[in-house]
Design brief:
Elements: E1 2-5, H1 11-20, E2 24-28, E3 31-36, H2 41-68, H3 75-83
Parallel strand pairs: 1-2
Antiparallel strand pairs: 2-3
Length: 84
Amino acid sequence: MRPVSIRELSGRVIDEAAQKGEVLGITNERRLCAVLIPVRQKWVDQLVEHNLSRILHAVDLGMKDEANKEEGTPLDDALDAVSR
């Protein structure tokens, strides 16, 4: 794991780590606060390409579901229902 201060974190650093297959340990005041596993754009493209039909199907279902709703549930009502 390569430690990187949160102040030094940038797109360039993330891209370099992805190219090298490095895991980044994000630090703040020398304390580890996050772990970042960068991936190459090629890998993301392959994931999308291989799953595009499922992605489009999920988007279609979400749009149909949204179109069928009259009005959303207020957050307070949803939280009250969960707490009961």
